[in-house]
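Subject: Cysteine-rich repeat secretory protein 15 isoform X1 structure
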Amino acid sequence: MTYNSFAIGNDSSNTIQLEGAIFGLYQCRGDLATIDCSKCIRNGVSQIHLACPFSYGATLQLEGCYVRYEHFDFLGKLDTSVKFKKCSASSSNDVEFFRRRDDVLADMQAGAGAGNGFRVSSSGLVQGFAQCLGDLSSQDCSSCLADCVGKLKSLCGSAAAADVFLGQCYARYWASGFYPNSSVSPSDDQAGKTVAIIIGVVAALAILVVLLSVCRRAMGK
C-alpha cells in the first residue's frame, strides 16, 4: 500500500476534537516497490523522531515517501499552499525546451488527476513526475496539480529543472543531464534520502540533500 491515513483518540461523533487526538498519514512514490516503500516509511518515522521530538505535529518529505502527523484533522482537506520549491541555477532560452517542458507538465497534470494520482512523463530530453496525496478526489488532485504546475512556471521560470511541493501534491521536471540518477524509479538508497530537491547543474555539483521538515512545537501553531 502506497498511502495510508489514521486517527487515534478522536471521537467522530463529537464536534469538539479531543486534546489527545492524533491524525496522520504516509505515502510513497507511486513507482516505489512495496519493500522499498516500507523501508522509506520506517526511515521517515525515525527521522521525524530525531528532527521534531516532542512536537504536536510534523511533516517530512523524503525522496521516496512523505510522512505527516498533526493534532488536528487535516485529512482530505485541499491545501495548495507552497511548502517547498527548488529551481536549478541553470536556465534555458531554447524554444524547443519550453515546448517539451510544457508538454510534460500538461501530461502529468492530466494523467495524475485522471488516474491513480501519480504520473511519470517524458518528451524528448525533458522528464518529470507528479503525485497527489491518496486522500484527494480526482477533481481535487487535478486542481492541486494545476496550481502546482502554474507555480512551477511562475516561481522557476526558465529553470532547466524544478520541484514544487504544495500541501497535497507535488511536481518535478528536469532536462536530461541536470538531475543526478535521472531514472524516475528511485533505488532503495535514493528512496530514503531527505529531499530538498535538487538539481546538479554541472558535473562538479553533487546532489544537494536537505531535510525538509516542519515541526509544530505548541498547540495551535
